[in-house]
């Protein structure tokens, strides 16, 4: 049970290592909301998860007074709208700035993540080199986006962590773990000074520090994943 303000019956179905779950946990912590966290075994999904998200059958799912909200970015917007006076806003008040934030959060999910996922799944030095080369342009784009969105302040959200910070920041420990094994440096401070400095600020935020899994635990999980990925089909 996470501490915080009462918010009706609030449950979060998740998996501890998932960046998509991490971003929701951080948002709930920022908002100071009290909720029940239910860890899902993604190999044996619970009936509650399958009933709550019958379309994608994925985590996270936020259940508020029995009503499920699915997809992490949708959950973040729901939390912001359902508790507008609790904690910092996750989206800007200005309509244009809100649209811009939604655009970049979606870019993280649909463009950056899909490209970086190839690096994440790469097994050989040659595969990793090619995947790294292909994901760098998306990081270049995000470096420019940070300058646009932050307007010279600390976060994509300005003075406070916002939805774009949560979207990208939830991958930071994973990025560092993959870099360590792949021998890469995706958020190179010389090439991407804005993002490199932003990453350190984001990880130092209290709500992030509380909810972000330890790098060692992520590394252990990742190594296990690569072993399974390398195993011949049909092997367990």
Question: Features of this protein?
Answer:
globular; Glutaredoxin; alpha+beta; Glutathione-S-Trfase_C_sf; four-stranded mixed beta sheet; 57% helix; Glutathione S-transferase Yfyf (Class Pi), Chain A, domain 2; 236 residues
Question: What does the secondary structure layout of this molecule look like, with pairings?
Answer:
Elements: E1 10-14, H1 19-31, E2 36-39, H2 47-52, E3 61-64, E4 67-70, H3 72-82, H4 95-120, H5 125-150, H6 163-169, H7 172-182, H8 193-204, H9 206-211, H10 215-230
Parallel strand pairs: 1-2
Antiparallel strand pairs: 1-3, 3-4
Helix pairs in contact: 1-3, 4-5, 4-6, 7-10
Catalytic activity: RX + glutathione = an S-substituted glutathione + a halide anion + H(+)
GO molecular function, one term: glutathione transferase activity
Function: Is involved in the conjugation of reduced glutathione to a wide number of exogenous and endogenous hydrophobic electrophiles.
């Amino acid at each position: 049970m996470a501490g915080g303000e009462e918010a009706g019956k609030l449950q979060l179905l998740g998996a501890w290592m998932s960046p998509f779950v991490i971003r929701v946990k951080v948002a709930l912590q920022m908002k100071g909301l009290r909720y029940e966290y239910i860890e899902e075994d993604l190999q044996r999904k619970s009936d509650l998860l399958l009933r709550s998200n019958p379309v994608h059958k994925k985590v996270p799912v936020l259940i508020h007074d029995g009503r499920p909200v699915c997809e992490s970015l949708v959950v973040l917007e729901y939390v912001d709208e359902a508790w507008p006076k609790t904690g910092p806003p996750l989206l800007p008040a200005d309509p244009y700035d809100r649209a811009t934030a939604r655009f970049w959060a979606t870019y993280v999910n649909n463009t950056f993540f899909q490209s970086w996922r190839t690096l994440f799944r790469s097994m050989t030095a040659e595969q990793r080199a090619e995947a790294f080369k292909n994901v760098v342009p998306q990081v270049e784009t995000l470096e420019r986006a940070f300058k646009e969105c932050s307007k010279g302040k600390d976060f994509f959200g300005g003075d406070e962590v916002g939805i774009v910070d949560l979207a990208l920041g939830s991958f930071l420990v994973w990025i560092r773990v993959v870099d360590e094994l792949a021998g890469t440096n995706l958020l190179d401070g010389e090439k991407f000074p804005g993002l490199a400095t932003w990453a350190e600020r984001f990880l130092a935020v209290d709500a992030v520090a509380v909810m972000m899994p330890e790098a060692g635990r992520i590394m252990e999980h990742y190594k296990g994943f690569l072993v399974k990925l390398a195993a011949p089909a049909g092997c367990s």
